[in-house]
Fold this sequence. Notes:
The chain is built from three helices and 22 strands. It has helices at residues 2-27, 58-65, 181-186; strands at 34-36, 39-41, 48-50, 53-55, 67-72, 77-90, 97-102, 107-114, 119-122, 126-127, 135-139, 148-158, 161-169, 175-176, 189-193, 197-202, 205-210, 226-227, 230-236, 239-249, 252-264, 267-277. It starts with a helix and ends in a 6-residue tail after the last strand.
Amino acid sequence: MTYKKWIIAASAAAVVIISGTSIMAMAKPNPIQIVLNGTELVTAKAAQKVDGVVMLPMKEFGKLFGKEVSYDEKTNTVAVNDKAGVKIAESEEKTIQITGNQTETGTYDHLKIKTPIFSRSLPGYNVTNPSYAPWIEFKDVTGDGEPEVVVILTTGYGTGVYQSNALVYNAHGDQILVEDALTALMKRFKGTYTDKALDVSLDDKHYTLPQDLMFSGGDSHGFKPGIGSVMQFAVKDGKLSVTTGVQVSPAEFVGDIKLTYIYKDGLLQAGDASFEFYPEYRP
């Protein structure tokens, strides 16, 4: 009798040990990380290691790399395709749509625009972050009395960086070229340091900022003032414009240049430009 009790007790202890081991194994954090170009990616279902092979559900794989993944049981085939024709932007009136193919690099390419009158392929690309989806305006920016379709694409963003690109089409779908803003401004802007101040010149206007008002201490870092990596297009009051920051150190911007476009000789050309210090830099 005692022997039987010992067997029963030993069996129960074994069950507890085995169960405890299983619980510990389940509670152990998954050490497998998925890193794309140095950035860790988080999946709804974690990757698992089975018989020495790292396994990830097909749908999770598709989400990570912007692919459509499907499995055909009849043919025993896994199909991996680009996400094509994804609607990524729509006008307020819902009459104009932009679609694109999602890539694994975090962008939409092969962009296409469709309006009630025309359909066109758009040059360039746009980031996939929905906060920076293409912006669509239906405004008369040429002054000819007929509204044009203006598409503003975001091609890059980050700390101190915002890059956008403007595409303009007339009512018939013909593209109206837009002069490159950075090239135009580089010809008209100059930033230099004097003994005690920053001097900014734009066209025939000069702006001065004492060095003691700058957090970076002016030329102490040997940084040459210039136009930064911020380029943001907008449409306001029937005018296409672009705003860019003036950078005086790797981490400091002191004001904005605003360039307004004018329509001339079939081209949207760089027109008037103005510079303004940020409020914290004003005397």
